[in-house]
Design brief:
Elements (H helix, E strand, L loop, with lengths): L1 E2 L3 E10 L1 H5 L4 H12 L2 E7 L4 E6 L7 H5 L2 E3 L5 E3 H4 E9 L3 E3 L2 E3 L2 E2 L9 H7 L1 H9 L8 H32 L2 H8 L1 H15 L6 H25 L5 H10 L1 H20 L9 H29 L1 H5 L1
Antiparallel strand pairs: 1-10, 2-7, 3-4, 5-6, 8-9
Helix pairs in contact: 7-8, 7-10, 9-10, 9-13, 10-13, 11-13, 12-13
């Protein structure tokens, strides 16, 4: 865990005391008087054979704290006083840098969670009482990182998911010209999501935004094997032919799924470096496709037979 508060060197804060105020000093006048010690002053200009020279002077004891405390201030009435007599010294920690957004100072707190133990949302839920107390004390909180990404992507993912489902349904309607067969194939999609949950549980990962994106992609991938199966089941005229055509498609469906899973296996089981952020997406696609293959081989023929019992029995 880290934060954006980087402390620099010690800072000396001066405050004019009652005696200094009685002499007519304030912070503005004090700054003008101290500038003679801490700012370089140009006192003359000279010329040499090549160029113009500026002659400047500066104090050689400006970095000595004792010399600073005993610095003599010349007042307007020609009186001179010692700095430490007219101001109070306070040593504070200064910030190395101050980050501002729209004129407001921001301090960042960073933390990484172990995805095998809890998610970022679960971590925020556990510290919610602390966050509520901070807000009651007038501290404005703004969440970034995964929390901000989830908020930004939520509506986009809902819109993209709805559009994908509609386009898949229209494609199947055009291909099969049947609402019944279209919805039979569409019913495979939600059941295929069970494979996504099994995969995340088996590998000890929680669902995340990459997982949701993988599930969105899975909706289209898992339909491919279903199309192969459904095109053959439509040829069946009785239950015996259902068994024949379903078994006939076993080999191409299995080979199609296995080749895809082999390609995803390295990212699922051996992610390295920055590739780890894509592991949940690969798990969603891989395990979802594996379970979807089982559904297309077993569930889809059974559902087709059940919904077409009357036609197959005549």
């Amino acid at each position: 865990m880290d934060d954006g508060i980087k402390l620099g060197v010690d800072e000396i804060k001066l405050k004019v005391n009652d005696y200094g105020e009685s002499l007519g000093l304030d912070e503005r006048k004090l700054g003008q008087l101290l500038s003679n010690m801490y700012l370089e002053r140009k006192i003359a200009v000279a010329f040499d054979s090549d160029s113009l020279l500026e002659i400047k002077i500066k104090s050689n004891v400006k970095d000595n704290i004792e010399s600073f405390k005993n610095y003599e201030l010349s007042l307007t009435d020609n009186r001179r006083v010692i700095l430490k007599d007219v101001v109070d010294f306070q040593v504070i920690k200064s910030f190395e840098k101050v980050i501002k957004d729209f004129g407001e100072k921001n301090f960042y707190v960073y933390a990484n969670v172990d995805p095998k133990i809890l998610t970022a949302n679960e971590a925020l839920a556990k510290i919610q009482p602390i966050l509520d107390q901070a807000q009651q004390e007038g501290i404005k909180l703004k969440f970034k990182g995964e929390k901000e990404k989830q908020k930004d992507l939520k509506n986009d993912m809902l819109a993209a998911g709805a559009l994908a489902i509609i386009l898949i349904m229209l494609s199947l309607l055009y291909l099969f010209n049947s609402f019944r067969e279209t919805f039979m194939m569409m019913s495979v999609i939600p059941f295929a999501f069970l494979g996504v949950l099994i995969g995340h549980f088996a590998l000890g990962l929680n669902l995340s935004m990459p997982s949701i994106i993988g599930m969105l992609g899975l909706s289209g991938v898992v339909i491919n094997d279903g199309i192969i199966m459904m095109m053959n089941l439509k040829k069946a005229k009785d239950v015996e032919e259902i068994f024949f055509y379903a078994a006939k498609r076993f080999r191409p469906i299995i080979l199609t799924s296995i080749t895809t899973l082999i390609g995803l296996s390295s990212l699922i089981f051996f992610p390295t470096g920055q590739a780890t952020i894509f592991q949940p997406m690969a798990i969603a696609l891989g395990f979802g496709l594996a379970w979807g293959t089982v559904l297309n081989l077993l569930y889809l023929p059974v559902l087709y037979t059940f919904l077409n019992t009357k036609r197959l029995s005549t």
